Amino acid sequence: MKNAASPGAEMQLVTFNLGDESFGIDIMEVQEIIRLPEITKVPKTAAYIEGVANLRGKILPIIDTRSRFGMSKRDSDDFQRVIIVDVNGQRAGLDVDSVSQVLRVDRRSIGAAPGSLAEGTDRASISGVLKLNNGQKLVMILDSSFLCEGRAPAFDDHIRDEPVKGIEAKRSEEDVLLVSFQVGSEEFGLEINKVKEIIRFPDIVKVPNVPYYITGIISLRDYLIPVVDLRSKLGTGSQEVTDSTRVVVVDVQGCLIGLTVDRVFEVMRVPLTKIFPPPQMTGHDGGANITGIARLEDGQRIIMLMDLQDIISQPVLDEISQPEPGSGEELVNNRFSIDETDEEQMVVFSLASEQYGIRITQVQEINRLSKITKVPRAPRYVEGVVNLRGEVIPVIDLRKRFELESKEYNQFTRIIVSDIHNKKVGMIVDAVLEVLRVGKNRIENPPDICEAQGADRFLEGITNLQERMIMMINLENLLQDKEWKKLEKISQTGNPEPASSGAKLKKQR
After folding, report:
1. Is 107 exposed, middle or buried (0-12, 13-18, 19+ CB in 10 A)?
2. Which residues pair with 252 in a beta bridge?
3. How many domains are there within the chain?
4. Do 289 and 352 fall within a single domain?
5. Range picked from 55-59, 170-174, 214-218, 489-493 for highest mean pLDDT
């Protein structure tokens, strides 16, 4: 702890308020003072960690100073500020009620912290007390290094020493992995190896003198990609853009194009025995050819498999992806030559208004919510088990695992199926947003202060994009070893307890 009362030159204090109390920080530790930024909450961190914010491209942890001192929360107002401090080379933001002034004081006027302080104030965090107005006002000088201590003992230290290993999704020769999506009132599918990304509807630049179904072009990591509105191409549905509208980026003969669809449903495994040749009448002029029909759920669900070669003709593709002769403009040819070794491809999903990412190599499929069978005496975060093509899969509710507020399941709820430690596990998320490629240089290590209460074992990085942050999760470290063993027992017997317990499964109502 600093000896604030040691003799020497003057010091400057940045003073701020928390409720009726006044505090000060050595100005040499203060980087800047900003208004409250947009904050991304990080699960399983200390209660006083509000989350992380983007400060000019850098990830900044934000500390709720009121919570750190055990004070009650208050509503935000125009006076609220965040003081950016640098402690031993690590930056953090202190969320305070208001900033008062900068005081120049003699170090010798700073006394030792008294035995009794304001309610909730930890004496260990106070390096001294300054008396003002003949002792009528006290300014408690904070030891900011104490405030910014957030690292708890590692949950499983041996896990952190091991390199992260991607799990390659097993691909059965008898199954086809499809991305299913909606156009108008119909459901279509594409083989996953043709899909490069799934993104939210972006800003589109209009291009003159192109076929009616080409909306324009978008810039995706410096590649110009033509966008085909499948709704216009197929003559179905409207061109209205909603929160569920997506652009599916696909590879057509070595070129990237975007397909605008109304909604992406899921990534699913379909047995070849469920896919049938299309009737002759399904090929239509000006639309798209259908290569197969997947019949699921006893024929109640029909997915039409689309032929990408028919989406856009090669002459049109060449024309829109290259500059017009003599135009003087250099458009980037969109031949697919991205170096994938410098990128990570992730499935992005939402939980409680925050965004999370999982490496696509850890994702086997993404399914709509199906009937879940409850398991007696299972851990709270285990929602139950589902039958996935004859295989019993335990299902984890990630909201419960991360101790977030519960929410009713709805039409957007999805189960992400992953193969972890050679066992299939389902994870319930609020919604799957997109499949995204990002440069590895955009993924930063989480701040040390976020490494508390087990967050460091599964949070392996934060993707810092200009308009948002995506927290990357390593599913292998989502549970402890003993929890994985219990989950394995559930998948084998449907019960975490020994078979002698005689407990029976109860169906979810």
Report:
1. middle
2. 255
3. 3
4. no
5. 214-218
